[in-house]
Design brief:
The structure holds 2 protein chains of 2 kinds.
Chain A: H1 3-28, H2 31-60, H3 67-72, H4 79-84, H5 90-110, H6 116-139, H7 164-190, H8 197-224, H9 235-251, E1 253-255, H10 258-276, H11 296-308, E2 317-318, H12 323-342, E3 346-347, H13 349-370, H14 376-398, E4 400-405, E5 413-421, E6 425-434, E7 437-439, E8 442-446, E9 454-457, E10 459-462, E11 466-476, E12 481-490, H15 492-508
Antiparallel strand pairs in A: 1-2, 4-12, 5-6, 6-7, 6-8, 8-9, 10-11, 11-12
Chain B: H1 3-24, E1 26-27, E2 29-30, H2 32-36, E3 41-56, E4 59-65, E5 70-76, E6 86-93, E7 96-104
Parallel strand pairs in B: 2-3, 5-7
Antiparallel strand pairs in B: 3-4, 3-6, 4-5, 6-7
The chains are: A alpha+beta, B alpha/beta.
């Protein structure tokens, strides 16, 4: 057994025993068990952290005898990408998630008053962490070795060689871990109905990181994928939107908001299942590993508190308009139906435009009508929403696209095309005269064994009201021609500005603690 | 009718609209063998593997196969010789699939959950 395996196993054992002792402490009301349980939890967190550090060390030292390092890295890669490659694949990102879950639990358990409610949280969270560690150790292990030392790695997918991809996964998984903690805390407190301040802080933190994660993902897609949009209605994107919708509705409820804290965690698990499930043949199915189905078990468990309180759905009360729960539920159902259908057939974009856009518009209208009643930070968040709506509407409906075979098109001229080479990659650089100035879109081909080794680098000429967006998708060096994708993306700046306002708004809300 | 029932009714009506809209906005993935049985089709999505890849004048010519049958594909843009399956979106006429998009089993593996 290697060191990595040993650390994972250590973390798993500590976490399982911690769960058992939390349960014993709860049953016997015995403080001594609780103390040991908490220590074991911290031990589990430390072992998991050590495992993560070890994996990072393997990446930085190019230890290709570890299969996961081989599959996601190569010698020539800059250090920052070697670091982000740690969570570029399924196994490493699960390790990161397990660690973050343990970390937020450890932090939560050590802070503040230690009462009965905390024991319950400890029990649920250590049980959930144990489950993640079981998947990690037995079904999705990043420390599997190959019996020889390859001279070089298979290489990181070129699409992931961006700064955004170094921060997007940690942010998303932090949000996922926080939503698990929110679930546990809400469940433990709801029986007694005592102070809800923990829940509020956790809900806001989850919302902040979930929002940030989605926005960074959209930003990455826009700058990297070359299809001129920030949102593709892809099942993975949709799946991340579902917990966001339920959590956003949570903040708008006065009564029975706990239902939506539970649902948020359920749909975090659903998102994990969709992403890792490898279900059905589509562009979005990933590999032949079925460890994704393992997430269905906690998903079903998380439904128990929802079904046991299902009658409470009748009595939910909104903070402001009674239309809000209806609109959010509709938005949720639209995205959910589309996502599930998309697992089997392809769903056209027009479906979302016909169904989602009107709901989005009505939600925005409600925000406009109610904005006078809000305090300053809520105003900021809702102004963010309005700006985001304006941007999305404009991008989704008015974006234009043309594919140009350069040489004969009016206003566009291929001035030059050349090939650069360095130790890591070939870069085809084209110099193109456009009505918006000269742009230099590139096509980069990495010298790696991986099947996908090319990526076009997007060139964007930004104006306040629109982006002129260029990517080359084909080229012929001998004939000196390129295929250029040109998008005119109106008001995309509003998408970023609106999102930024929402994020700033929720951060500022901490200084405006309301009861 | 009280507001609770009204809300429920609105939600149900909305779900019905969503399902109907969805029904008219989906298209199944088909295989090259199934495609060969059709005379003409617009905006279809064909799943298969790439063989016999040739590039000429910025155009790409290849065959898409499911192991049993293969169809000719013409695409304006470049395609790499992927080993895994791809989805070709395009129009089918006169025995040729005119591709608008060639999608890889893609990057989404890495985002989120």
């Amino acid at each position: 057994m290697g060191t990595g395996d040993f650390l994972l196993l250590l973390s798993l054992i500590a976490s399982v025993f911690s769960a058992i002792l939390f349960l014993t402490a709860l049953k016997n009301r015995a403080i001594k068990y609780a103390t040991i349980a908490e220590d074991l939890l911290h031990a589990s967190t430390s072992a998991c952290f050590a495992a993560l550090m070890l994996l990072i060390y393997y990446f930085l030292t190019d230890n290709f005898s570890v299969w996961y390092v081989y599959a996601n890295s190569n010698l020539e890669m800059p250090i920052v990408y070697k670091l982000s490659a740690v969570w570029a694949g399924k196994e490493g990102s699960l390790l990161l998630w397990a660690f973050l879950t343990l970390l937020v639990t450890s932090l939560y358990m050590s802070a503040g008053r230690k009462d009965l409610m905390k024991l319950k949280v400890g029990l649920i969270m250590s049980a959930f962490s144990s489950y993640l560690l079981i998947i990690l150790e037995f079904y999705s292990n990043p420390f599997v070795t190959i019996p020889y030392l390859p001279t070089n790695g298979y290489g990181l997918n070129p699409l992931l060689r961006t700064f955004e991809m170094a921060i997007h996964p940690p942010v998303v998984f932090l949000a996922y871990s926080l939503s698990a903690l929110l679930f546990s805390v809400t469940l433990s407190q709801s029986a007694k109905g005592d102070s809800a301040s923990d829940q509020r802080v956790l809900a806001r933190l989850s919302w902040l990181f979930l929002t940030l994660g989605i926005v960074i993902g959209g930003w990455w897609a826009y700058r990297t994928l070359g299809w001129g949009g920030f949102w593709g209605w892809d099942p993975v994107e949709n799946a991340s939107l579902l917990p966001w919708i339920t959590l956003t509705l949570y903040f708008h409820l006065r009564k029975h908001r706990e239902l939506f804290a539970y649902l948020t965690f359920t749909f975090v698990l659903f998102a994990t299942f969709v992403t890792r499930g490898g279900i059905i043949s589509s562009v979005h199915s990933f590999g032949s590993d079925y460890s994704g189905y393992m997430y269905l078990a906690p998903l079903c468990v998380s439904l128990i508190p929802i079904f046991s309180r299902i009658r409470d759905f009748e009595n939910i009360k909104s903070l402001c308009s009674p239309l809000i729960p209806v609109l959010f539920s509709s938005a949720f159902i639209v995205v959910f139906l589309g996502t599930v259908a998309n697992l089997m057939v392809s769903v056209e974009r027009s479906y979302y435009l016909i169904t989602f856009l009107p709901i989005f518009a009505m939600i925005t209208l409600l925000a406009v009508l109610n904005i006078k009643k809000m305090n300053s930070t809520a105003k900021l968040i809702h102004v963010g929403l309005m700006v985001l709506f304006l941007g999305s509407l404009s991008v989704w409906l008015f974006e234009t696209h043309e594919t140009l075979n350069l040489g004969n098109d009016n206003g566009f001229r291929l001035e030059d095309i050349w090939l650069n080479e360095d130790y890591e990659k070939f870069t085809v650089v084209s110099k193109i005269q456009t009505p918006y100035g000269v742009v230099y879109p590139e096509y980069v081909i990495y010298k790696i064994e991986r099947e996908e080794r090319g990526v076009s680098s997007v060139e964007i000429v930004s104006y306040l009201w629109m982006d002129e967006y260029f990517a080359i998708t084909g080229f012929d060096l001998e004939k000196r021609s390129v295929v250029l994708e040109h998008y005119t993306v109106p008001l995309i700046s509003c998408v970023w500005l609106g999102s930024a306002l929402m994020v700033v708004g929720i951060i500022l809300r901490w200084s405006h603690f309301r009861v | 009718m009280n507001s609770k029932k009204l809300s429920l009714a609105a939600l149900l009506i909305f779900i019905a609209i969503a399902i109907i809209t969805l029904y008219y906005n989906i298209s199944p993935y088909i295989s090259p063998s199934q495609l060969l049985k059709l005379d003409y089709a617009n905006d279809i999505q064909v799943v298969g593997k790439i063989t016999d890849l040739k590039a000429q004048n910025g155009m790409t010519f290849f065959k898409l196969t499911d192991g049993n049958a293969a169809v000719e594909v013409i695409y304006k843009g470049s395609v790499q010789h992927y080993d895994s399956e791809v989805v070709v979106v395009g129009d089918w006429k006169d025995g040729v699939l005119y591709a608008k998009e060639v999608l890889r089993k893609c990057h989404t593996e890495y985002t989120g959950g």
